[in-house]
């Protein structure tokens, strides 16, 4: 009886671990889809100096993948890599495209 109980516990642990592994291997497209409708902030660099010029904030309209990279399409029409995001928040009542001086 003890062996059966141990075998059942090991089977349950194996199934739980498999579910965990499946959830970790979700497509980035699925992982980032929760950002749709959220407000994101990202840095904008000066093209000449490469230094931080400002931080912009915009609302995510969609998520897409291209060449193994995941991108966010923003309300302003811009497309940015998810790697560029510095902040994610709920949309507030003020203007959707806010520029913060850096």
Automatic annotation (TrEMBL):
<protein>
    <recommendedName>
        <fullName>FlgD Tudor-like domain-containing protein</fullName>
    </recommendedName>
</protein>
<feature type="domain" description="FlgD Tudor-like">
    <location>
        <begin position="30"/>
        <end position="86"/>
    </location>
</feature>
<dbReference type="Pfam" id="PF13861">
    <property type="entry name" value="FLgD_tudor"/>
</dbReference>
<dbReference type="InterPro" id="IPR025963">
    <property type="entry name" value="FLgD_Tudor"/>
</dbReference>
